[in-house]
Design brief:
The chain is an alpha+beta fold and 156 residues long. The chain has a single domain, classed as Lipocalin, CATH 2.40.128. It has 2 helices and 8 strands; from the N terminus they run αββββββββα. An 8-stranded antiparallel barrel has the order 1-2-3-4-5-6-7-8. The longest helix is centred in the first third of the chain and has 20 residues. InterPro entries: DUF2147. This is DUF2147 domain-containing protein.
Length: 156
């Protein structure tokens, strides 16, 4: 009798927890962007979801000695011109489409240009490949962002 109750309790727990364990990884979280040319960390970006769309804002910049510790986007041509880069939303409008998130826009604060964007999780959700492009996806570049602990945004 005791064994049957224990077996029933464990089966019930797996039925309840199973769907939670099987949930797919999501880009929501904190990511470290890596500079394509130098391989050095550039920024921490916090991605959140609102109304089924992803958006990402810079929560920290990795600066070298002598660089402006709190730069503004001088090159931006939209409403972000002159705004501080830390706290700026640079990624908007990504929506899930199969295994990737598409239909978004991404700002490169270094040159002020806005590109179409898409993203895809890899390596079990620890790497986010973010592609910015003009026109169609072949004309662009992809960055690998590395997932960081949520607490990384708190210390930013």
């Amino acid at each position: 009798m005791r064994r049957a109750i224990l077996s029933l309790a464990l089966s019930s727990a797996f039925l309840v927890a199973g769907p939670l364990l099987a949930q797919e990884a999501t880009p929501v979280g904190v990511w470290k962007s890596i500079d394509d040319s130098t391989g050095e960390p550039k920024a921490l970006i916090q991605i959140s979801e609102q109304d089924g769309q992803l958006q990402g804002r810079i929560v920290k910049l990795f600066r070298k000695p002598g660089e402006d510790p709190d730069p503004v986007c001088d090159e931006c041509t939209d409403q972000r011109k002159g705004q501080k880069i830390v706290g700026m939303t640079i990624l908007t409008g990504l929506q899930r489409e199969g295994e990737e998130w598409t239909g978004g826009m991404i700002l490169d604060p270094k040159n002020g240009k806005v590109y179409k964007a898409k993203a895809e999780l890899e390596e079990g959700g620890d790497v986010l490949k973010v592609r910015g492009y003009l026109g169609f996806s072949l004309l662009g570049r992809t960055q690998e962002w590395q997932r960081q602990p949520e607490s990384a945004a708190d210390g930013a």
